[in-house]
Amino acid sequence: LKPVEQTLYSAMPETEVREVSDASLATSEWSRLAHQGWMMAAKFSAVAVAKSVAEPSVEPQDAEAPGHQAGVVTKGFLSKRKQPPVGGDLGNFLDTTARGVMDQASALMAREAPEKTPFMHKYEARELLVGLLAQVHSCEGREMSTGIQEMLAGCIGHVEHLLGVNFYESEEISQGEKHLMIAKDLLKQHHIEHMDCLNHLAMIWSTRAEYVKAEGFLQTSQELHDAFLVTADAASVALSSPEQKQYTATLFLLAQVYQHTQQADKSARCCLQTLDRQALSLTPDELCSQANEWVSNAIQLSGYFLSQEELVACASCLAAAEAFLDLIPAARTQGGCVSEEVTANLTWGWGKLHVARLVAAASTRVLALDGLQEVPQEATPVSLPVKFSIDNVDRYMPPDLDKPIDSYPAMCIVVQLVMALLTRVCKAFPLDGACTEHVVAVQDMSRSYKSLVPFAASPNDVSKLHKRRIDLLEPVAQALNPQCFDWLCKELWYEVAEAYREMLDLKIAQLDSGAKNIPKTKLMTLGSGATNAYAKFVDLFKPVPGDQSVKDHSKPQGITEPATRRWYLTARFGLARCLARTPAAEEDLISRKMPLAASLGEYKAIVDLMADPLHAFPKNGPNFDQELKICQEMVELLPAKMERLHTLDTGRSGVS
Length: 656
Fold this sequence. Notes:
The protein is an all-alpha fold. It is built from 22 helices and two strands. Strands 1-2 form a two-stranded antiparallel ribbon. The longest helix is centred in the middle third of the chain and has 30 residues, at 340-369.
């Protein structure tokens, strides 16, 4: 996430002589620093300020001293041998001169340095701060009023804070931590700087992978902010205020820490709060410059909620992205501040949301057809409501999103919407330019058609739906280079094979039951499509010819993971079944034996593969037990069937 505001100081040369402003700062003390808006923005490495510093202040000089003029800064005024004045002059020094030095140091730290000397200006700022800290520490132990003592402690805390940030940004982490720990205890009355110390300490411990400790600092920062809001004025509550920007940084860091501590839900909701606060505090220019990143983050956040099956939360993120674009007049125009890729991803997000709705409805329908009920899952406790504060978010929320789809006409309406959305996505991500995105979008379209299957009224309708899936997937699978897109090719060919097999089983069942007269050539075409697709899938697991690292080229590669191994074995099991069920082109005995022999070979290969202890499935997890029993039975039965094949009737389907 980009910083909400990055107003940087322009530093003055140290030797330049400036006049001191006569404005009285006696009533400000150090608490006014927060309200003047200077702060080190956590994580963003920039000094966000509400107004620029007018001039560097000066150390009070003796008007009668030779060679000096009252109200003038000269080089070397921070010499460690020079002692600050006492009494009222000390208060003026702390409130004017010391603050001017810190402002100048902050400006130097924010200045961009040459690539060869990236920390040059930070070292210059450090020299100023070290000198100032030495002078301020020299005042300790003197007799002074309670007010001056508080100012002195506050001054030391602010210098330690800046030094801590300086060392952190100069990649001297341990030294930075020491200064920040000191500053943390001295700045308890200075809300912004206190929170910034805690945020930086959290970042330091995060770099050490001590995420629990980092979380503790951030939670303390969060508690401080909650307590601050109880007595805060209206200006401090505004999201554009320095106080609120610092809290936005805290939420951003919490999101990262929660992710590392396996608290994904809390992380996502902190991201949501960060996005919402940022959108409400950006200026019109910042809205345009950060539109691509903001919308992309909202889309990614929607993906998390979709993975958790929180469809309403997912839709809220997408609707917020749409509403965010409405804040920018030229956002949706050609060549506007939002790229075509981001716009296409937003469209895709809506498509994936509706595909998830279709898949959920299909799963519920399958259970109902089987006479089963869906097992209710325990509700995950929600820490915060998933809701954005941007105007017009509700305008983009789909109606009846929390209600299940329970009829074929309703499913068709959603499928039509999905097809329209994903067609636009495919055009935005063409196969020859964005291959992976195009393929995944096509797979989403196929899933939409497949979700209609449980609602279809007849086998003919089911067959048409599978045919549409094949028409979508097969041309893409044929166009891909397996050497470049190995996994995508596997997914596509497996899905094509499954669709062909489903059609083959349907047609054979219709023919054998007498419900419909299916031409033999139709069955042969479907069987050939299934076996070819399965074979292409299986071939993708074969070792590359000539690969010297593979000892046995007869064994499949890449099936170490149990889930992948089951996927591979299921494909070979499906291939064996389709070979046995596809009618032969000729009625002679040899032609009828050939597919059965090929089927027997696949069953034997599966049994032999599973006999290897290396391919055994773990007790807890995916297994292949039921299919393996069928394979073992077929290895025993098929030879006998082939021996008496001449006595068997092929039946209506031509399959023995």
